[in-house]
Specification:
three-stranded antiparallel beta sheet, alpha+beta, 10% strand
């Protein structure tokens, strides 16, 4: 018999960040230090928590508007996306974000994802995390590319 657990996905994967033109980013001229983001994937508890949070927000909006669907503002959508992506981000590798000052962890992640001039980054992360194949194979740590 086939052991289906052999197909289980890893909790995390590494995204090699691309610039707005779609070119992979590196922190050095030799192109040995890829700019990366390590994220939790769709099979992880962190991802499940975000899905629960998103559902709760939708229900709250419906209740607040007497069952009528009401769109969120662009600013609210950007902020919610930044919060959600920050919650599934494990680390940033080989890049800094000076506007966040000394911020670390979720506060730093959220600041990057909320920056409208860097909107191509949350788009990449959002797209990457929905593809289960990115999490196939061995768990990924803080290095390597995907």
């Amino acid at each position: 018999m086939f052991d289906i657990t052999s197909q289980a996905v890893a909790d995390t994967a590494v995204i090699h960040v691309k610039n707005a033109a779609g070119e992979p980013l590196y922190a050095d001229a030799e192109r040995t230090k890829p700019v990366q983001i390590v994220i939790y994937g769709p099979g992880s508890a962190a991802f499940a928590a975000i899905e629960t949070k998103q559902s709760a927000r939708a229900v709250k909006r419906l209740k607040a508007n007497d069952g009528e669907i009401s769109p969120t503002t662009a600013e609210d959508r950007t902020q919610q996306t930044a919060e959600d992506l920050a919650a599934i981000t494990v680390s940033f590798e080989n890049f800094t974000y000076p506007p966040a000052g000394d911020a670390q962890g979720a506060a730093l992640f959220e600041a990057v994802y909320a920056d409208p001039k860097l909107g191509f980054i949350p788009k990449q992360v959002s797209k990457f995390v929905t593809d289960w194949s990115n999490f196939a194979g061995k768990p990924k740590g803080g290095s390597g590319t995907n």
